[in-house]
Amino acid sequence: MQPDNVYNFRARTEKKKLSPLFACLLFSFVIVALVAYYLASPLARLDKVEVQGTSHLDSDQLRELAGLEKGMHYWRISLGSCRDKLSANPWLAAVNIRRRWPNHLSIRVEERVGLAVLMSEEKNWVVAEDRVILAENQGFSLPWLTGLTLGDLGPGDRVEGRVPELALAWAAAFAPVASQVSEISFAEYPTVISIYTTDGYKALFNSSAQPGDSIGDFALLLEELRRAKRKGIIDFRGLQGRGVFIPWP
């Protein structure tokens, strides 16, 4: 006989827990669905290409060279392929491309700068300090390097040869006054190197002289002669490379 103070309780039923496997599958499905939605949305299309570091080339040229157009699928763009296409342009010394969230690309370039114009038998070429031919000369205001024996050249080629390399070293040394120099002649090399200014002066240097040794004296003496309104030849072939002024006949 059951005591009066004892009551029967229904056994509590435990709630069924979500299995880890099912939760993982559900989470994966949600992620896949979101990724599929994103890839099909406008956010997965290239919207903007930012270009930095240009001077000679403009942004539109770089986008075209890289083969980039607005609306391209963002994740199907090969950054390596774009970089290779841009690096093939001789004006570009360095190229860096990065993705920017959510659908932008950033292109940062370092351009080569024209140092001088190489005068050849057929064409005249703009050349950079690292000896890379940039383009055919079309009105660039740069010193001309004349009297050189050059082979076949074209954009992207690198100038080879001891004398052309020496000529470029002289052009680089005189870069601070490049706007005043019209021509650096190696026509009388290895006897003498001649430099002509844009306003009618001629300077003579020993071919064995270091390119940068006399630029300071050259600039100072040239300024003094201009103030005195005297034009002629400045001969730096004497003792200790000191300049001697010889008026034009």
Secondary-structure map with pairings?
Blueprint: H1 20-39, E1 48-52, H2 59-66, H3 79-87, E2 92-100, E3 104-111, E4 114-119, E5 124-128, E6 133-136, E7 144-146, H4 162-173, E8 181-185, E9 192-197, E10 202-206, H5 215-227, E11 232-235, E12 244-247
Parallel strand pairs: 1-3, 4-7, 7-8, 10-11
Antiparallel strand pairs: 2-3, 4-5, 5-6, 8-9, 9-10, 11-12
Task: Describe the fold and architecture.
The chain has 5 helices and 12 strands. The termini are far apart. Helix content is 25%, strand content 26%. It has 249 residues and is an alpha/beta fold. The radius of gyration is 35 Å and the shape is elongated. Strands 6-5-4-7-8-9-10-11-12 form a 9-stranded mixed sheet, with helices on one face. Strands 1-3-2 form a 3-stranded mixed sheet, with helices on one face. It folds into 2 domains: 43-111, membrane protein fhac (Ubiquitin-like (UB roll), Roll), CATH 3.10.20; 114-247, 3-Layer(aba) Sandwich (Rossmann fold).
What does this entry show, briefly?
This protein has 249 residues and is of the alpha/beta class. The protein is built from five helices and twelve strands.
